[in-house]
Amino acid sequence: MPSKHVDAYRDGGLAGQLIDQIKHTSRRPVRLMEVCGTHTVSIFRAGIRTVLPETISLLSGPGCPVCVTDQREIDAFIALSRIEDVIVATFGDLMRVPGTESSLLNERSEGRDVRMVYSTMDALALARQHPDKNVVFLGVGFETTAPTVAAAIATAARSEMANFSVYSAHKVVPPALCALMDTPGVRIDGFLLPGHVSVIIGTEAYRPFVDAYRIPCTVAGFEPVDILQGVARLVALIEADEVALENTYARAVSAEGNTRAREVLDSVFETADAAWRGIGTIAGSGLRIRDEFSGFDAARRFDLILPESVDPKGCACGEILTGIKTPPECPLFRKRCTPMDPVGPCMVSSEGTCAAYYRYHPDGADGDG
Asked: Would you place residue 305 in the very low, low, confident or very high pLDDT band (cuts 50, 70, 90)?
């Protein structure tokens, strides 16, 4: 379902010029992965896939925070909601993600106290309002949101707010790129790197990855022109057999990133191994709450009894997150799995690849070209 932006590309403006440049330059088939879920939605909404040459395939990567959250972490969230005197505070997308036995939405319908919030500070406010309850914030997301969670934990520590804690399922992006390249069956020729994450970590955070795997990477913004600029640079580098780390989002992203935000993050969190849906455990790809803040770590504070975690049967979300499959190749897509009744998180989240395919390609057509 192409958007109105497609016709705008033909108006001779910068977007149209970039498309002409890409068509003129692109000769060999390439597979480019946009890592960020916001990129995925922007690409579909703007109809970008429909105006690129057939030589270019755009793959959606593991950039949706809810989608990459491991099934065992979802089960832990549900277990927390079942503890007496606990209020679970969470962002909305997590509510409908199916765990092994239930979901947060199901738990709330059965009387558990699960509340949607818009920020970690909202969760802190809940803790102040309910001193007789334990408020647990479910921390998911990448380097973009983790500093705000760190700030909330630091605030709670200074205020001696003993009834507030966080279950950290936060992930960091660069180690996941390495894991993707090492995953059997994955073939990627270039990466569109996430703009929001890069604002925090800076472009140089990707340098070790680019040097080790010798693959072109470009940091891109989220407007159609931003994305087309990123694609154009990747195609030019690939056609010239050059490897480079480039930044086409310089108005927001610098080489060093936001050093203050990283200082706050590093003061509360330390890196740890973490499990990613579809990829497995990646060394140093998670954020664990430091020992000095252990009283605010829900994973240590509560004894959780979890079922044997099992991914939804037949769901291809893991393979979709790694670019091995597209949503129409999942046997459940648009049949048993829909936004109204999702089987896997890729259909739940507003940034999920399956949800984007469903909304913008309702006939299930392959959106790669």
From this structure: confident
